[in-house]
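Q: I'm building a small set of examples for a reading group on sequence design. Run inverse folding on the following structure and report the sequence directly after it, with nothing in between.
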């Protein structure tokens, strides 16, 4: 197998770090071999990106010209959509229906930020003297985009598109286990006319090259998606440099079923919210709060449907849950389920690996529901990042809000009710960045996304998401007919 090149400083070449193989989580066959970037590659990529982003080919583009490059990226992703979706299926093991949606969303993200780029207005502010005042926005410089393995291409697009739209140079460090889509995005950027060196794609272990990226003096912002502990370590390094960061971190989202909910909608929504993407989703609704008066019938329906979810071959369009990302990750989920049992939980369904055929070759795990625990149990408090739902209950709204907000995380929540006034009250009182009402895990690039508490810092997406990658500058234009009087 040939060693795949990576994109460093405008050149496709072998990274100077370790050679490693990436694998298909459904059967453990090798996808690709590549040589990771080392610290020298990191430094070269950053220095080249800084030089390239200052050249007129990139720096002097008018907004509509830069937007045209992003529109071309979007069109090229669409042209290659099926190929990219199949590659992502192998890279990450997600079902093909899901990877098709993620590729489409990446194309939409570039289109959206192209539009944001060419329509972004700068402002004249009200003058308070003999001058004209303006507020304009400048690129930050080189931005580092560090992404996790759970939604390749969509995560990278969410950072790369606004960072390029804002006129920056960008180094993208995808997760070491899922580098392939980011590398393809690098090829797409080149074909779309992003000048050489403006973008580098440098796969590698965070523990080896992460510090070098974050500490480099030419890196002016890190946009990070990943685990809370990694985000916290990175924020400490960034603080030394007084560098802004955007951190999209972990979650343990409550999904709330009221006694007046349409239970058919709620059952399907809760299942989709926690088990799609095999639960490897920051926004997974992994804490179920069901009103005690409907708890028994709700759980009966939920468990019957969870047990019938189709776990299997990601290439099959009927598959609802593919494998987990690695055997090590599956073992960590198994430890959590065991912990739940040890803490007195009852496994209502799942709690085991499926057996036979493909199941024996990949990292599959059955959708799992536990009850008999409280919101204080460790598996109710820690992010499991797998197909595990903890079923809790509530009596009145005060009790519900106390439990739902009693979490280190504050990423997302769901509410199922027919009472819109109650939905409004609960939604406003939940300490999270997103609340879905009678739906779950719907995403729109035009709607801002953020986490609070240990789920993150800063906002991504939305029309003004582009401003996260620019700094604001004020201009004062003197209109005086005479010299300033002070010196006379
Ligand atoms: P992770 O924190 O282990 O890794 C994320 C990225 O950071 C990877 O590219 C990794 O190589 C890199 N990294 C690791 N150590 C680093 C260091 N010291 N310096 C710089 N970079 C370093 O997370 P993961 O296991 O890949 O992803 C799962 C986590 O991501 C979960 O906690 C999940 O909730 C979170 N996530 C959050 C969102 C969101 O939008 N809030 C979205 C997706 C995933």
């Amino acid at each position: 197998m040939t060693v795949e090149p990576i994109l460093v400083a405008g050149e496709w070449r072998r990274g100077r770090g370790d050679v490693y193989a990436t694998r298909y989580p459904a059967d453990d066959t090798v996808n690709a071999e590549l040589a990771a970037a080392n610290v020298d590659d990191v430094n070269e990529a950053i220095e080249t990106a800084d030089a390239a982003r200052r050249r007129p080919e990139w720096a002097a583009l008018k907004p509509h010209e830069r937007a045209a490059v992003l529109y071309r990226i979007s069109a090229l992703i669409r042209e290659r959509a099926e190929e990219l979706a199949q590659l992502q299926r192998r890279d990450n093991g997600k079902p093909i229906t899901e990877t098709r949606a993620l590729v489409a969303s990446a194309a939409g993200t570039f289109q959206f930020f192209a539009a944001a780029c060419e329509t972004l207005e700068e402002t004249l502010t009200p003058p308070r003297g003999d001058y004209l005042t303006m507020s304009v926005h400048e690129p930050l410089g080189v931005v580092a985009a560090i992404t996790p393995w759970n939604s390749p291409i969509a995560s990278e697009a969410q950072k790369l598109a606004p960072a390029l739209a804002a006129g920056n140079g960008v180094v993208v460090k995808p997760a070491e286990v899922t580098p392939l889509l980011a590398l393809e995005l690098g090829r797409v950027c080149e074909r779309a006319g992003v000048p050489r060196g403006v973008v580098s794609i440098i796969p590698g272990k965070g523990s080896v090259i992460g510090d070098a990226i974050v500490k480099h003096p030419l890196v002016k912002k890190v946009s990070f998606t990943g685990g809370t502990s990694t985000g916290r370590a990175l924020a400490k390094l960034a603080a030394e440099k007084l560098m802004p960061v955007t951190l999209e971190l972990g979650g343990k989202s409550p999904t709330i079923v009221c006694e007046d909910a349409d239970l058919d909608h709620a059952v399907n929504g809760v299942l989709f919210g926690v088990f799609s993407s095999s639960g490897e989703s920051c926004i997974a609704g992994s804490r179920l709060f069901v009103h005690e008066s409907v708890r028994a019938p709700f759980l009966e329906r939920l468990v019957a449907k969870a047990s019938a979810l189709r776990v299997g071959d990601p290439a099959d369009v009927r598959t609802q849950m593919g494998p987990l990302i690695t055997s090590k990750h599956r073992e960590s989920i198994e430890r959590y389920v065991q912990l739940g049992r040890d803490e007195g939980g009852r496994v209502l369904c799942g709690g085991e690996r499926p057996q036979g055929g493909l199941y024996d070759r990949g990292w599959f795990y059955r959708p799992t529901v536990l009850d008999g625990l409280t919101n204080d149990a460790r598996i109710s408090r820690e992010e499991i990042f797998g197909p595990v739902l903890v079923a809790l209950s509530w009596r009145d709204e005060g009790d519900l809000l106390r439990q739902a907000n009693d979490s280190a995380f504050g990423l997302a929540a769901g509410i199922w009710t027919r009472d819109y006034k109650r939905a409004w009250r609960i939604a406003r009182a939940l300490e999270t960045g997103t609340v879905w009402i009678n739906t779950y895990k719907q995403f729109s690039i035009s709607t801002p996304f953020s986490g609070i508490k240990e789920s993150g810092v800063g906002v991504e997406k939305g029309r003004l998401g582009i401003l996260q990658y620019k700094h604001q500058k004020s201009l004062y234009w003197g209109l005086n007919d005479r010299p300033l009087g002070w010196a006379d």
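The domain at 3-249+455-474 is CATH 3.40.605.10 (Aldehyde Dehydrogenase; Chain A, domain 1).
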